[in-house]
Amino acid sequence: MRVYLLIMLFFSGISFAQNTITGSVTDSNKQSIPGANVVVLGGSGGVSTDFDGTFKLTTSAKLPFSIKVSAVGFEAQTINVSSVNQRINVVLKDEETKLDEIVVSASRTPERVIESPVTIERMGIQEIKNTTAPSFYDGLENLKEVHFNTSSISFKSINTRGFATVANTRFMQLVDGMDNSSPALNFVLGNLIGVSDIDVASVELLPGASSALYGANAFNGIMFMNSKSPFTNEGISVYYKYGKTSQDIAGTNDYNDFGIRAAKAFTKHFAMKANFTYMTATEWIAGDKRSMTTGGDSHAVNQNYDGLNIYGDEVTTFIPNVGQVSRTGYREQDLTDNKVKSMKADFSAHIKPWANDTEFILQYKIGTGSTIYQGANRYALKDFLMQQGKFEVKGKNFFGRVYFTSEDAGDSYDMRFAAWNVNRAAKSDTEWFTNYATAYQYAGAVMGTNANQSAAIARNFADYNVLPAAISFIPAPTGSPRFEPGSAKFNSALSTVVSNPDLTQGAKFIDHSKLYHSDVNYNFRDIIKWAEVQVGGSWREYIMNSEGTIFTDYDGPISYREYGAYAQLQKKFLDDRLKFTGSLRYDKSQNFDGNVSPRVSFVYSAGASKRHNFRLSYQTGFRNPTTQDQYIGLDLGPFALIGSAAENLDRFQETVNVSTAGQTIAGQPATIGMSGQNAYRNAYTVASVQAFGASGNVADLQVANIGLVKPEQVQAFEAGYRTVVQNDLSIDINGYYNIYNDFMNTARVISPYYGTVGTPLSYQALAFGDRRVYQVYTNTTAEISSLGFGVGLSKKVYKDFELGVNYNYAQFNFKQQDDPDFVAGFNTPKHRIKASLGNAKVIKNLGFNVNVRWNTEYLWESSFGDGIIPENTVLDAQINYAIPKLKSVIKVGATNLFGSDYLQVIGAGMIGQQWFASWTINP
């Protein structure tokens, strides 16, 4: 109380007489309108109506004064208030708002969607309430241009305009102005530290390049999630969702989601807000058994079987007179508990010290949980923690903010390494393969078995130390039998391995990385009258701290900085029918040359009412190499990942064992030290080494000319048309063409342990097996382009029944012969159709919504696995019923209704069905 009085005394200075008025807001059918905004004109107070449409407004404004009453989908009204005893009963008229909502993100200034210079998608409060998905974030998949990549039931990546990955570093996500990307991984972890369903006010999404205003990494799109203000949205809101998930592998399991929001404007100067959510579910279990090697999809028919979601069988070797053989692996579902949880909370204090719009915001966000992430391997993120803190000052024409993001990997681990080292805890690789080779050859020689029979006997001996009586004379192994999943020995070994960060024995990874960011913007519209001019800039510092488990930060954290500045001019011509927007931004990263990003756009509003809007734009985007692209130094066993920052090539060091032949014939020592320089300066292409291995002809070898990675760039051309016909039918058409330069890429190379490439000594090293495989980060010199177009239609087909349909086409162009080693990873269907049908008020208090999505099959390419994503159709639906007396909404919904399990990412779990029922109080 003492602190509160000090705050009031400091910011108010004097006390004000308070006037309180009450009233209600209804529509033309006398239905209550909850959530309508009631604001005192002049900026001295405001509230939102309760669930039954009533309000109570306390203000220091002197009588008489005016209030403005507004709500989404209705015409605003201004009411004069002359007495505190006056009961204000407002009836709002329906208003068709298609494409008239106000957005800010397209130009960093308020404008109607229909006048936006670029394609923009928006989800407002009404769309959020009507979503057919379990959460508003899941419901984003129904927006035009959006394509999801689901790695986990709680980890979904948004993709627009192609080149999709689970780790989508080409897409940005901002929550209340803060970048949600992981400091170490540089991509968004879904809604882990995002916004609660009952606190989100709006979502704006810009597909395509946006670097001219938002800088590096706003390359293929950017999304803005904005939360509700405690000054205009007070009270306590609560929701609880219970449901079931169903998947062929995982079965049927519980789904729980709880959230609470509390907000209070203590005075017109001071308000606070807090949110808390908690969700638990069972994972979409990944169980793809297809082999990544040729020969069949099980060890029964393929000695070198490598199942996609079976780990441990990547450990393989060539045994003379036997062939290529892999160890027996463990299923992914054996290596994790398959439980998903997510907890997030945020707290903010808001201060408006003066009568104008200036607001100070102090905010803290925290998110933790367990989920699965797919990169080069599959990672179990256990008790992963992210935190953000922000201080912001904003006003009518400016904002300035500083914030930090920090993360802690918690008990996270790599499931491949977990399987490898659980196997090794039972028996070393050397002993296992020796056991296999011995039993295989004796089985054939003594028992006369065929290849498959010999392989079965050999695997049984190597795994379980069991032999047929005919060859029981083979000496017993010293290693233990294989640890069976669920056994005490398996559980003990797994627990030990996942808590050890030494990847030669363990699987845990450590991450305490951080980033610090600041940005400012000022709009000169009140000073410069002939045009709207704004300027701004940003600064960021990354601090990588993995203690050598991810990055080459063995001797302490690694940091680097980047900054940028921009200016934009916007002006209208020809009786305000033609709007020109031009912007220019300069960005500089510590490790790379500066980059200039221009954008030019024109919007022409035709017709008597200016409702036919044509737009044309040219803009550029760029993406800086990620922290991993630059500083990773990770030994994955069969190969190592080496970032290509110049200093990183020397930071990465390892010692390798030279073969007996290399020591005796080539005269090399028993061990040799290698560094990142070998990967980038002394290596052959993988394809040429394979050809050399088959032919023995040194002429087949090709030196890998790998350049250090640099920023990639895109030039984006876009045209579009928006209109509303007869205030009912909305039409949105857009087309784009993108040209990519220096497209970032990874490549595998093979470096000889000794000898310079192109010399006889290096040929010897390759022939003796003294070679190391590296994955390096570079840019392709090939020309890459992509194009696409979309059409969106929406119309009320009968009374308030709204029908929406949209179609998107996407393709990319690339000549493989220009860069044979380049993997495009477009990972986007060529054709997509989405449709919706809904009515928020079928009858009194009852509404519904249905969404359907369809896409053609498409090729998925990634470092984890390649394959075809099949064509699929998904149907989601929900019905909701409002209970005004309880200030509640009951919703029942289902996703993938009547559908089979379907796939979005090769290597991830197939997505099943989900049913849910929710109860929201004071939504």
Plain-language structure description:
The chain has 15 helices and 52 strands. The model is unreliable at 1-16 (pLDDT under 50). The protein is mainly β and 923 residues long. α6 packs across α9 and α7 crosses α8 (451-464).
Summed up, what is this model?
By secondary structure, the chain is mainly β. Helices cover 13% and strands 45% of the residues.
> Which residues sit in consecutive blocks of at least 5 with pLDDT less than 50?
1-16
Give me the count of strands. 52
Roughly how many Å apart are the termini? 29 Å
Main pleated-sheet profile: 22 strands, antiparallel, barrel
What's the overall geometry? globular
Rg computed from alpha carbons, rounded to a whole number of angstroms: 31 Å
Report the portion of residues in β strands. Answer: 35-45%
Label the structural class.
mainly beta
The percentage helix is: 10-25%
Number of helices: 15
Average pLDDT level: 90
Helix-strand blueprint:
Elements (H helix, E strand, L loop, with lengths): L1 H11 L6 E9 L9 E4 L5 E3 L5 E6 L5 E6 L6 E5 L6 E5 L9 E2 L7 E2 L8 E3 L1 H5 L6 H4 L7 E6 L2 E5 L12 E4 L2 E2 L20 E8 L3 H4 L6 E7 L7 E13 L3 E15 L4 E13 L27 E2 L4 E4 L3 E4 L3 E2 H4 L3 E13 L7 E16 L3 E17 L3 E11 L4 E2 H12 L2 H19 L3 H14 L23 H11 L15 E10 L8 E13 L13 E16 L4 E12 L5 E12 L5 E12 L3 H5 L1 E3 L4 E3 L5 H4 L1 E5 L2 H5 L6 E5 H6 L2 E2 H10 L16 E14 L3 E13 L2 E9 L7 H8 L3 E9 L4 E15 L2 E13 L17 E13 L2 E10 L2 E3 L6 E3 L2 E12 L4 E8 L17 E9 L2
Parallel strand pairs: 1-7, 13-16, 36-43
Antiparallel strand pairs: 1-4, 2-3, 2-5, 5-6, 8-9, 10-15, 11-12, 13-14, 15-16, 17-18, 17-52, 18-19, 19-24, 20-23, 21-22, 24-25, 25-26, 26-27, 26-28, 27-29, 29-30, 30-31, 31-32, 32-33, 33-34, 34-40, 35-36, 37-38, 39-42, 40-41, 41-44, 42-43, 44-45, 45-46, 46-47, 47-50, 48-49, 50-51, 51-52
